[in-house]
Amino acid sequence: MDLTTTYLGLSLRNPLVAAPSPLQQTPGGVLTLVDAGVGAVVLHSLFEEQVRRDLDPDFERDHWFSNPAGPGAPDRYLDLIEQAASSVDVPVIASLNGTGSGEWTAFAGRAQDAGAAAVELNFYVVPGQFRGHGEAVEDAVLDLLSAVRDVVTVPVAVKLPPYFSSLNDLAVRLVEKGADGLVLFNRFLQPHIDVGERTVQPEIELSSRSDARLPQTWIAVLREQVECSLAGTGGVETADDVAAYLLAGADVVQCASVFLRHGRDHARVLLDGLEAWGDAQGFASVADARGLLAVPWRVPSEDYQRDGYVSALQIARRTYWWK
Asked: Of 33, 125, 256, 306, which residue is 20 to 30 A from 40 by alpha carbon distance?
């Protein structure tokens, strides 16, 4: 199976993309991921607060934000983009993590000038913050996209959490505002409560295969409803997991945990397995597999999904009734 594909209008040698992680914090780290076979690299995220700190010397005095990278993080990020983009032959994508528009979004233009082939906006809102009605949060991500769209000409993808009152409506609005792609989903901080020490420990665990179910479901729903690229992320452990994302309708699959767990060279294991799967299924290209299991646009999606829900409950009933 031919693994070449297109994402955000960019030509990729395969649909396996390195998601933001500590592995690509240096040009050498990016190079080793590319040597291992990935089709594109999304750099680790630069945070809105890091940019705003450099713009406003009084920022840390007036905010809770603690900057672990210290002063100068934005300039170092630009250096990373420039060095990585000039060293590899695959797209290097900048990742900007934030929640609000404003002066800081001009940094996206600087990232483009440094060589970023695209910009990924990681819209990260911690659950529990009181931000008014759901529409206020949705308007915030739309405003952020518009602000970045105004300063760049490269493609822009938006990485979203799953927790919106109407994710499908938001997806359509984002595409209308100029989003070239959607990345589903970012992972929330879920703190660990130590009952012995009575402390809250901020921890992020590596994803497990079950984490792929939610993004795959939404990708299958959105595939024929929006005209943009779709990237799935989370829960990849084997080539079958990559294939499942493609069948749901993903254009690319972003991976981080699997590389952190098994090393960068595991990319070749995933790609070889994906190619073998495609050959066995009789697919000539990635396009032949993409979206085969997406929700058909000609059927009422609510009825389609409701029927699947009821069917799943019936299977569970037959499976576990004797217990």
From this structure: 125
In single-letter form, the type of residue at position 263 comes to: G
Token representation of residue 213: 């179910």
Query: At a CB cut-off of 8 Å and minimum separation 6, what does 233 contact?
Result: 19, 159, 183, 184, 185, 186, 215, 253, 254, 255, 256
- Confirm whether 305 is domain-assigned: no
User: pTM (2 decimals)?
Assistant: 0.91
User: Is residue 192 over pLDDT 90?
Assistant: no
Give residue 308's Cα distance to chain centre: 26
d(CA 41, CA 94): 9
133 is a domain residue: yes
Residue 246: strand, helix, or coil: helix
Place of tokens 């750099």: 43
Answer with the residue of higher pLDDT: 209 or 302: 209
> Is residue 300 a part of any domain in this protein?
no
Q: Prior bond to 283 cis, omega within 30?
A: no
> What's the whole-number average pLDDT of the chain?
90
- Residue 29 forms part of a structural domain: yes
Domain count, the chain: 1
Rounded to whole angstroms, how far apart are CA atoms 6 and 102?
A: 31
**Residue 203's pLDDT band (cuts 50, 70, 90):** confident
CA count, 13 A, side-chain hemisphere, 290: 25
Residue 321: its pLDDT value, please?
65
pLDDT tens digits along 16-42:
999 999 999 999 999 999 999 999 999
What does the alpha-carbon distance between residue 171 and residue 1 come to, in Å, rounded to a whole number?
A: 31
Q: Which domain holds residue 63?
A: 5-292
Q: What's the rounded mean pLDDT across residues 4-14?
A: 98
